[in-house]
Design a protein that fits this description.
With about 450 residues, the chain is α/β, with parallel strands linked by helices. It is built from 18 helices and 18 strands. About 35% of the residues lie in helices and about 20% in strands. It binds NADP nicotinamide-adenine-dinucleotide phosphate (NAP).
Length: about 450
């Protein structure tokens, strides 16, 4: 059985690993010349341990049944019908490439950005390396209470010493070095008991070299509904978050040069400024019970805070590929346990999904393992039951198609050449790597390696 996997992130690699163990031949395709998806382009540079998961993926890549074709855009260079014609089955695991919008006035003013763009920029994603973020800002607002909001806030206050040892992209390192950021506000629309971030991430905010963390005591205090909910249903993550935030509220401030302030029960209602961001208007919320869930409700009380830069970090969102079903409301490809379904709810033979484009942008890297294995098992079951359509083209035809449409595609050996160049550049600086950040640099480093 020959399977194509579109998207070389964790979900794609976990699915590939399972399928190869079951005897399949697997080609993993990616838009980027490099593999590993958000492990390379999303995980914060100061979290190298999280990135060590690539060792598992390297083992999969070393299997004889595995091939990587990077720098290949499915949907433009090759469309889903063409892929279907060359493989027994295709798994789409291309994640969630864009962000959710707040839908408030001023959201598109210069100085207001999706956090996802900023993350891609500091991680050296080639399509974002040229973006500009004005870090002459002194006060920054980060909207949202997820781990991405925490990553962005932390990156904005890391000391030079903390940053210099990482694989942050060189252009971002220069930007952070020149940064004048003094205060970062993390703004949550609900309270401390509903925050989506996880314990290690919020604890880490209290352990930074050159930054204080501050929570107003009135913000750390739970409203009666949240208190009752936490006592009755709260899991460890929520309880420890609440304890940590209460401890921050009790901390005396130090003379650190920078500060992170967590504010709760506040929804942005507008971003103001004459030609660029100058302030953000927040409405105070209260927590109410709605449809069995604790929800924010505006009180009408507003406050305008001067800020120079705004990052909205309210979730990623999947993007459709022409020729595949798409649930626009949820930003996912509709599926049942990984089997893609059409508008009538019928399974589309030979087409599967895994990861964020299957379940939405939630969970940590490890969450993708079970998710991808569920999909791979469904695919194997369909293969064994004879439910996969027979491909019309063979491997030679596929290689001809790739050579014609994507002559600059990068194989896994090509990626290993890139990896070597990056690591060698990082070594004298005591950094894990210095990332190559343009497609030309990346394909150049990969070139000359056997295809
Ligand atoms: P997330 O965890 O889903 O958090 C989104 C946040 O945005 C929530 O606090 C949500 O509040 C808020 N929000 C949504 N709509 C809003 C609006 N209109 N106005 C104000 N706030 C709004 O998303 P994420 O931070 O993008 O993270 C994505 C996934 O990656 C998560 O599973 C995360 O844990 C994971 N991740 C993990 C790490 C790590 O392990 N270190 C690092 C980065 C990301 P409500 O709860 O009120 O909706």
């Amino acid at each position: 059985m020959r399977v194509a996997i579109v998207g070389a992130g964790p979900a794609g690699f976990y699915a590939a690993g399972h399928l190869i163990k079951a005897g399949a031949q697997v080609d993993v395709l990616d838009l980027l010349p490099t593999p590993f998806g958000l492990v390379r382009a999303g995980v914060a540079p100061d979290h190298p341990k999280i990135k060590s998961v690539t060792r598992v993926f390297d083992k999969t890549a070393a299997e004889p049944g595995f091939r990587f074709f990077g720098n290949v855009e499915v949907g433009t260079a090759i469309n889903p019908d063409e892929l279907a014609a060359h493989y027994d089955a295709v798994i789409y695991s291309f994640g969630a490439a864009t962000d959710r919008r707040m839908g408030i006035p001023g959201e598109d003013l210069p100085g207001s950005h999706p956090a996802t763009d900023f993350v891609a920029w500091y991680n050296g994603h080639p399509d974002y390396a040229g973006h500009e973020f004005d870090l002459s800002a002194e006060r920054v607002a980060v909207i949202g209470n997820g781990n991405v909001a925490i990553d962005v806030a932390r990156m904005l206050v890391l000391s030079d010493k903390e940053l210099a040892a990482t694989d942050v992209a060189d252009h971002a390192l220069a930007g952070f070095r020149a940064s004048r950021v003094r205060e970062v506000l993390i703004i949550g629309r609900r309270g401390p008991a509903q925050a989506a971030f996880t314990n290690p991430e919020v604890l880490e905010l209290g352990e930074l070299d050159g930054a204080d963390v501050h929570v107003d005591p009135s913000d750390a205090e739970l409203d009666p509904l949240s208190r009752a909910w936490l006592d009755e249903h709260g899991d460890k993550t929520r309880r420890v978050n609440v304890q940590t935030l209460a401890a921050y509220a009790a901390r005396p401030s130090t003379d650190a040069a920078r500060r992170i302030r967590l504010r709760f029960l506040s929804s942005p209602v507008a971003i103001h400024g004459d030609g660029r961001v100058e302030s953000i208007e927040l409405e105070r919320n209260e927590i109410v019970e709605r449809d069995g869930r604790l929800a924010p409700r505006g009180t009408g009380e507003t406050e305008t805070i001067p800020v120079d830069l705004v990052f909205r970090s309210i979730g990623y969102r999947g993007v459709a590929i022409a020729g595949l079903p798409f649930d626009d409301a949820r930003g996912v490809i509709p599926n049942e346990g990984g089997r893609v379904i059409d508008a009538e709810g019928a399974a589309v033979p030979g087409v599967y999904v895994a990861g964020w484009i299957k379940r939405g942008p939630s969970g940590v890297i490890g969450t993708n393992k079970q998710d991808a294995i569920q999909t791979a098992k469904a695919l194997i079951e369909d293969h064994e039951a004879g439910r996969l359509p027979a491909p019309s083209g063979d491997d030679d035809a596929l290689l001809d198609l790739l050579a014609a449409r994507c002559p600059d595609h990068v194989t896994f050996a090509g990626w290993q050449a890139i990896d070597e160049v990056e690591r060698a550049a990082g070594e004298p600086q005591g950094r894990p790597r210095v990332k190559l950040v343009t497609r030309d640099e990346l394909t150049g480093a990969a070139r000359g390696v056997a295809r």
